[in-house]
């Protein structure tokens, strides 16, 4: 396998600005040991005033989140950015696909900055446009393409969202995946049970939603492996399937295991297990509650004092929830420390460097989506916004 075929480049090696890949940071960063970093970030932000709007994803480090004007999940942050047309600079403390979505939803005169270009997303990188187009062609050869509606999770690159836009599909978040799947099946209602969904790029969110919320069976789901000829599936398997799940996953949420759930239940009778739907199906089946990051936050906020919780999502968020709720006992649903390594690429030195560069009139690490991709991605995003009755949060 050549380096170019690897789904994720070793961080800091190589350069591919169009992908969720590790790239070199071009900047002259302040030393991480500089004792004045907090003061420098504060001063740069104050100097920029309302010209800058800093967004912080829930999975960001504390040292970064303290400078965020708003925090949230990827879709909320993109909408927050769109609601600030006066801000010249949107500094996105998150990962690459989120900055792309912010660029799509903001005006061309606003610059979206990602403080470290190595902050990609390994899940988004598991579905690359050329692979998805090959799969689409293979589905045509198998005679099923006309029955398929593509649905992509927000956690995907802009060109995958554009693919869904131009092929009658939609974007979804982990809050509205059920409604998006129902919408997609309704587009092919005349085909009855032959209607199919190609779900990108997270097989777990797709499977959990189809089985637990739409009442499909596991046998209705097949997994398309982009590294196998025809996805590793027979024509019959493709014809019989209702959910064609792309073989992608989140490296953080994929770690949580049934064993640890059993272990924690034995150690802490009465413990509540709360997980994100990017976790494996077997783990979700063993959990008490499943939902998006916003759902997890609201659940803990509403929980009774004295209750015990194990949370299966990114560790920065779990730690912040534990610190904010000392009246509840909150533990991480894994034996090991596990941060999202790419989210953690955004640290204080990168943030200081990005902000101070803006003060000097230099826009660094600008993320732009080309106009054609933007137009088609917006079609799929707009279809999501038009879905009935959900908060559109992931
Ligand atoms: S937590 Fe998972 S889905 Fe989110 S940015 Fe990290 S790898 Fe991607």
Secondary-structure-derived class: alpha/beta
Succession of helices and strands: HEHEHEHEHEHEHEHEHEHEHEHEHEHH
- Assess the beta-strand content as a share of residues: 5-15%
Bound molecules: iron/sulfur cluster
- The CATH topology label of the largest domain is Rossmann fold
| Secondary structure: helix percent | 25-40%
Give the spatial strand order of the biggest sheet: 6-5-7-9-8
What is the level 1 CATH name of the largest domain?
Alpha Beta
**Ends: how far apart?**
34 Å
How many strand elements? 13
Q: What is the global morphology?
A: globular
Show unreliable segments. 1-15
Q: CATH homologous superfamily of the largest domain, by name?
A: NadA-like
Indicate the CATH architecture of the largest domain. 3-Layer(aba) Sandwich
How many discrete structural domains?
3
Rg measurement, Å: 21 Å
Taking all residues together, what is the mean pLDDT? 91
In short:
The protein has 394 residues and is α/β, with parallel strands linked by helices. It has helices at residues 37-48, 62-65, 74-82, 96-105, 129-141, 158-166, 177-187, 203-212, 235-240, 258-267, 281-286, 293-302, 315-324, 348-359, 371-385, and strands at residues 52-57, 70-72, 89-93, 111-113, 148-153, 170-172, 196-200, 221-224, 243-246, 272-275, 289-290, 308-312, 329-332. Helices cover 37% and strands 14% of the residues.
Plain-language structure description:
With about 400 residues, this protein is an alpha/beta fold. It has 3 domains: about 5-120 and about 340-365, Rossmann fold, CATH 3.40.50.10800; about 125-250 and about 375-385, Rossmann fold; about 255-330, NadA-like (Rossmann fold). It is built from 15 helices and 13 strands. The strands form 3 sheets. A 5-stranded parallel beta sheet has the order 6-5-7-9-8, sandwiched between helices. Strands 2-1-3-4 form a 4-stranded parallel beta sheet, with helices on both faces. A 4-stranded parallel beta sheet has the order 11-10-12-13, sandwiched between helices. The longest helix has 15 residues, at about 370-385. It binds iron/sulfur cluster. Iron/sulfur cluster (SF4) binds next to loops.
């Amino acid at each position: 396998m050549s380096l170019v075929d690897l789904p994720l480049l070793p961080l800091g090696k190589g350069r591919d600005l169009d992908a969720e890949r590790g790239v070199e940071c071009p900047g002259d960063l302040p030393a991480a040991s500089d004792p004045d970093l907090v003061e420098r970030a504060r001063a740069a932000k104050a100097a920029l005033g309302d010209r800058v709007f800093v967004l912080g994803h829930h999975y960001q480090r504390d040292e970064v989140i303290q400078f965020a004007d708003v925090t949230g999940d990827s879709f909320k942050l993109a909408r927050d950015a769109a609601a600030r047309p006066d801000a010249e600079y949107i500094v996105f403390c998150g990962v690459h696909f989120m900055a792309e979505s912010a660029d799509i939803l903001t005006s061309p005169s606003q610059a979206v900055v990602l403080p470290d270009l190595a902050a990609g997303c390994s899940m988004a990188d598991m579905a690359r446009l050329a692979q998805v187009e090959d799969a689409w062609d293979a589905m045509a050869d198998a005679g099923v393409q006309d029955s398929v509606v593509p649905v992509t999770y927000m956690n995907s690159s802009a060109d995958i969202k554009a693919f869904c836009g131009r092929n009658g599909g939609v974007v979804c978040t982990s809050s509205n995946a059920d409604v998006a799947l129902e919408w997609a099946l309704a587009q092919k209602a005349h085909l009855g049970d032959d209607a199919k969904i190609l779900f990108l790029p997270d097989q777990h969110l797709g499977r959990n939603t189809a089985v637990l919320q739409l009442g499909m069976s596991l046998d209705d789901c097949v997994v398309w492996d982009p590294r196998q000829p025809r996805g590793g599936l027979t024509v019959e398997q493709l014809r019989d399937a209702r959910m064609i799940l792309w073989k992608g996953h989140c490296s953080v949420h994929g770690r949580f295991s049934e064993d640890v759930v059993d272990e924690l239940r034995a150690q802490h009778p009465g413990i509540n297990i709360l997980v994100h739907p990017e976790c494996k199906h077997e783990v979700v089946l063993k959990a008490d509650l499943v939902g998006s990051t916003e759902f997890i936050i609201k659940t803990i906020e509403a929980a009774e004092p004295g209750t015990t919780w194990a949370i299966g999502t990114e560790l920065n968020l779990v730690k912040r929830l534990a610190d904010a709720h000392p009246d509840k006992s909150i533990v991480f649903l894994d034996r090991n420390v596990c941060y999202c390594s790419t989210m953690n690429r955004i640290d204080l030195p990168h943030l200081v460097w990005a902000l101070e560069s803006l003060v000097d009139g230099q826009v660094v690490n600008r993320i732009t989506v080309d106009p054609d991709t933007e137009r088609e991605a917006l079609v799929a995003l707009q279809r999501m916004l038009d879905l009935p009755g959900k908060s559109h949060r992931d």
